[in-house]
């Protein structure tokens, strides 16, 4: 099944609006029993299908723990991550380490040796078969942990600790970004 065909059903199953619903300028993220406002710039909408592809491929839910797990997985997986993905990912990873440290850490290590789909572009990801995306991400490949994985985990924790300090200026930069042709394709 193509991702574009699976995505509307997946989003409905998760209680999320469909991909064609206009997005509001603010989104709400649950953490510690409180919904927190975060900016929802147009660039985020342009990369969201690829993020959602990762949800489908990994099986991580879209609740607070699942988002933290996916953030950990995306930070560990090789391949480019858009600036917005780094900002949100580090914040979610940090929250995940506080709320569900074992799940979040396991997800990080599961992402080591995998590849993200961000380098493929939105259109290629939407047109890809889910099994093709599983092969591309190497989600089913056996993983062997190395010292590099542990070093990457330590770097990710350092980024998660530093992100709240630098998040506000970065959010200002992100809000001013426009989707590039490469991100939309």
Mean pLDDT across all amino acids: 86
Query: N-to-C terminal Cα separation, in Å?
Result: 20 Å
Number of domains: 1
Low-confidence stretches: none
What level of helicity do the residues show?
55-70%
Q: Strand order within the widest sheet? A: 1-2
- Based on DSSP secondary structure assignment, what is the total number of beta strands? 2
What would you report as the Rg, rounded to the nearest angstrom?
16 Å
Name the overall outline: globular
Q: What class do helices, strands and sheet pairing give? A: mainly alpha
Number of helices: 9
Beta content comes to 5-15%
Give the topology, please:
Layout: H1 3-13, E1 26-31, E2 34-39, H2 42-58, H3 64-76, H4 83-99, H5 101-111, H6 122-127, H7 130-137, H8 147-176, H9 181-184
Antiparallel strand pairs: 1-2
Helix pairs in contact: 2-7, 3-4, 3-5, 4-5, 4-8
């Amino acid at each position: 099944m193509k991702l574009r065909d699976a995505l509307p059903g997946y989003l409905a199953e998760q209680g999320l609006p469909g991909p064609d619903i206009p997005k509001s300028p603010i989104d709400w993220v649950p953490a510690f029993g409180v919904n927190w406002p975060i900016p929802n710039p147009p660039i985020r909408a342009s990369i969201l299908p690829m993020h959602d592809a990762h949800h489908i491929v990994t099986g991580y839910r879209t609740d607070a723990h699942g988002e933290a797990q996916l953030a950990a997985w995306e930070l560990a997986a090789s391949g480019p991550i858009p600036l917005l993905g780094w900002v949100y990912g580090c914040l979610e990873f940090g929250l995940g380490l506080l709320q569900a440290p074992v799940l979040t850490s396991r997800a990080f290590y599961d992402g080591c040796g995998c590849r993200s789909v961000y380098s493929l572009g939105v259109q290629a990801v939407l047109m890809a078969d889910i099994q093709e995306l599983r092969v591309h991400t190497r989600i089913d490949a056996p993983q062997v942990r190395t010292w590099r994985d542990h070093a990457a985990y330590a770097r990710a924790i350092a980024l998660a600790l530093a992100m709240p300090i630098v998040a506000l200026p970065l959010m200002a930069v992100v809000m001013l970004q426009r989707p590039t042709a490469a991100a939309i394709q």
